[in-house]
Amino acid sequence: QVQLIESGGELVQAGGSLRLSCAVSGRTISAYNMAWFRQAPGKERDLVAAISRSGSSTYLADSVKERFTISRDNVKNTVYLRMTILQPEDTAVYYCAARFTISSDYIGKDRDDYAYWGQGTQVTVSA
């Protein structure tokens, strides 16, 4: 069983920074395309960032480009989301997700692409 555990979410002031971590157990993440989604109250769960198995390809939603960075450490079996210049509209529960793939460069962009999910970590940005 693949288990994903997110951490790092907290209350932060606008303009601040956070780094979210997603620790994976049960399988090596080197076989998985990884992603971060977020869901604000009353809204859909949307893709924020994704990274291929190899780490050579990444995707960032337009709303977070220039501010967020996704990275992975296959030795530590952990994926990170570095968030800077946080804004109140970034307030949401952030979820880590994993998709098994044989393609080293594949990046899933739909929620249904991902079979494994964490429980989420709350990020709250105050104005």
Question: Which helices and strands occur, and which strands form pairs?
Answer:
Elements: E1 3-7, E2 11-13, E3 18-25, E4 32-39, E5 45-51, E6 58-60, E7 68-73, E8 78-83, E9 92-100, E10 116-117, E11 121-126
* Helix residue percentage: under 10%
Cα distance spanning the termini? 40 Å
The number of helical segments is 0
SSE series? EEEEEEEEEEE
How many E-type strands?
11
What are the low-pLDDT stretches, counting only 5+ consecutive residues below 50? none
Shape: globular
Radius of gyration over C-alpha positions, nearest whole angstrom: 13 Å
Question: What is the residue-mean pLDDT, rounded to a whole number?
Answer: 96
Largest sheet: 7 strands, mixed
- β-sheet strand percentage: over 45%
Which structural class matches the secondary elements?
mainly beta
Short description:
This protein is 0% helix and 50% strand. The protein is mostly beta strands and 127 residues long. A hairpin with a 4-residue loop joins β7 (68-73) and β8 (78-83).
Account of the 3D structure:
With 127 residues, the protein is an all-beta fold. The protein is 0% helix and 50% strand. The chain has strands at residues 3-7, 11-13, 18-25, 32-39, 45-51, 58-60, 68-73, 78-83, 92-100, 116-117, 121-126. The strands form 2 sheets. Strands 2, 4, 5, 6, 9, 10 and 11 form a 7-stranded mixed β-sheet that branches. Strands 1-3-8-7 form a 4-stranded antiparallel β-sheet, with no helix packed on it. The N and C termini lie far apart (40 Å).
